Amino acid sequence: MKRILVISALMLVIAATHVQAADYTLTSPNGKVIVNVQTGERLTWKINHQTTSVILPSEIGAECKVAGKDLTMGKNMRKEKKMSGTVREQWTTDFYRKTVVDDNYNYLILQLNGYSVEFRAYDEGAAYRLVLTQSKPFTVESETRVFRFADDYKTTLGYVTDTRDGDIFCTSYETYYEDHKLSELSDKQLVIQPAVVWLPEGKKAMIMDAGLENYPNMFLHKADGNVLEAVFDRVPAEEKISGRNLIPARRENFIARYDAVEKQQTLPWCTVVVSEKDADLVDSDMAMNLAPGCRLNDTSWIKPGKVAWDWWNDNNIYGVDFKSGLNTETYKYYIDFASKNGIEYIIVDEGWSGRESMIKDLNKDIDVPELVRYGRERGVGVILWALWRNIILDMEGNMAYYEKMGVKGFKIDFFDRSDQVMFSSSKELAKCAAKHHMMVDYHGHRAFGLNRTYPNVVNYEGVKGLENVKWMGKKDGRPEFDQVRYDVLIASMRMQMGPMDYTPGAMKNATQSSFYADYHSPMSIGTRVHQMAMYTLYEAPLQMLADNPSNYMREQECTDFIARIPTTWEETVVLGAEFGEYVAVARKKAGKWYIAALNNWTPRDITLDLAKLGNASGKADIFADGANAHRTANDYKHTTKNISAGEKLNIHLAPGGGWTAVIE
Fold first, then answer.
1. Which numeric CATH code is attached to 22-289?
2. Which sign, positive or negative, has the C-alpha torsion 660, 527, 501, 401?
3. DSSP of 283-324
4. How do 81-92 and 236-242 pair as beta strands?
């Protein structure tokens, strides 16, 4: 009898220490996105879209040290508390593709000792994040984000190829997209988000993070099987100057550090956008909905608009009686051009300042105070270029000095990093700039939702924009990279993470065969209207006119059309899209509809169903590819047409072509 009691007691101990698994199900408001969460020895999530597997059970977790003690998130979970519910909200903005944004989701929160895990299911995808619920200093040693797929699916993604000092984590986030099966991906290269995985039934999954504030960027990496996993840079322990850049010289053994925590610390959202049809990827609000809300009480001083930009055209104006270049006369010419054409700003790009100071050792040939005065008299604001490593030497002092001068903002360049320190600095820059009523445009940087939190962040680069054709080579008689397919893809991929400073507007246009690189007098690849359509299609509250004023004045009717296009919108409707093939979008502002379509190299005829625009009708001002645009890329046709409500427009898109119109 005594022996039996001992054995029974031992079994009770084993049962008490055994981790009990639990299953939870979360569905989207429309019931199509289904998230299954399993706890126990390992925390996993699984996503289905109706009966289509999006990701198989995939591990979630993080290894942390809280006040010096180990905390493992996502393993050996016991007695979690569950909270669940629904959110049906809207928020408004003046700086996006729409003024009213629906934020509708169902949520599940699992609370444990010291941390919680929050899941959300939207109609357009699902996301989760880890939250430390202790007010103690801590480090994140590593985080596990895994994406397991049911088969060897096709992917569309881009590798890290542009690095600084050979450091794979020091990148500009610019990459051309490639198509590969999961099994064909390199396990020796990092992937820049977002990455798209082609699912059965024409559906797609797009992987990205969101709501990143004080954390490193998520890269993706090929793991064993049909699996992608996250990779993060570590916190810099020392930094060094390398050319224009400030990069890590030595790193710590952890990816994030928080020295002061108030109540809780949230990590970024791990996000999977799911599209039922290709058009869904062109108008996803998940990145913006998962970003922290606006922290500015007053945004009335933020004035989006267009910019006459100098760098791409190499200040190469002509037909003037002075020597063009980095000098005051040239920039006054840009100001005069902007003023005559209703363009709100000019940028004085690299060359006006020294690399080690923004107040000393300035270029004596460029009188910035005089340009600010001259521009003010003509209704044109001045934006200055700055190195990131330079402006942060005295962030407050630099902002205050140029605010007093009357400068409207900074294009801050050469961030080119992916660690926590850089992203934290980006937020502090935006906050400081807002204090001084300055707008900022981040180059060498990815979009990460900061533009919702601080709307004075009016653009990001992180895109293979027009600058890349200045030095693009040719292979087998064609451009080295397929720029025009990329132009179509970024509307569904890169742009869904936030606005992008592609810098369109070339008036010198080339076919594949006629293209050549010319740094001083560059051209675009694709048709004239391909370039013009980007002003409606691409989201950029601060949008560049990349070509030089002399070229724009020679092409005045194209310039007049570009100059009238807004840079923020009240409503967006996707009129059609086929991933990587073409995309067509309509956007509304002040009672007018602006429509644009962009094509890859395959000529096609498409129908735009204007019934999607409600009662939209009136006179349409139309620019279309000319009959010979396939041979002479500059060729276009400008017409007008009376549009009836509900009309269907049949349009032709040339190879590398476009189409654009305004209905008023």
1. 2.70.98.10
2. negative
3. S--HHHHTSPPP--S--TT---EEEE--TTTTT---SSSS--
4. unpaired
pLDDT digits (tens, 9 = 90+) for 199-212: 999 999 999 999 99
This prediction's pTM: 0.96
Amino acid sitting at position 566: P
Token pair belonging to 578: 């086929």
Name the strand (E) or helix (H) holding 545: strand 542-545
- Is the Cβ–Cβ distance between 46 and 58 less than 8 Å? yes
- Which residues does the annotation mark as catalytic? 413, 467
CA gap 290, 208 in Å, rounded: 12
Q: Which CATH superfamily is domain 463-539+568-664 in?
A: Golgi alpha-mannosidase II (2.60.40.1180)
Q: Is 625 helix (H, G, I), strand (E, B) or coil?
A: strand
List strand residue ranges (DSSP E) for 160-243, in order: 163-164, 167-171, 178-181, 191-198, 204-210, 219-223, 227-231, 236-242
C-alpha 50: how far from its chain's center? 29
Kindly state the tokens that stand for 284. Answer: 């996803």
Supply φ then ψ for residue 214, to 5 degrees. -140, 65
Cβ neighbourhood burial of 557 (10 Å; 0-12, 13-18, 19+):
exposed
For residue 42, the 8-state DSSP code is B
What pLDDT digit, counting tens, does each position of 36-54 carry? 999 999 999 999 999 999 9
Residue 219, both tokens? 């890269």
Q: How far apart are CA 29 and CA 128, in angstroms?
A: 16
Residue 157 and residue 240 in contact, taking contact as beta carbons nearer than 8 Å = no
434 three-class SS: helix
The arrangement of secondary structure in 303-462, i.e. its CATH architecture, is Alpha-Beta Barrel (3.20)
**Which residue type occupies 138?**
F
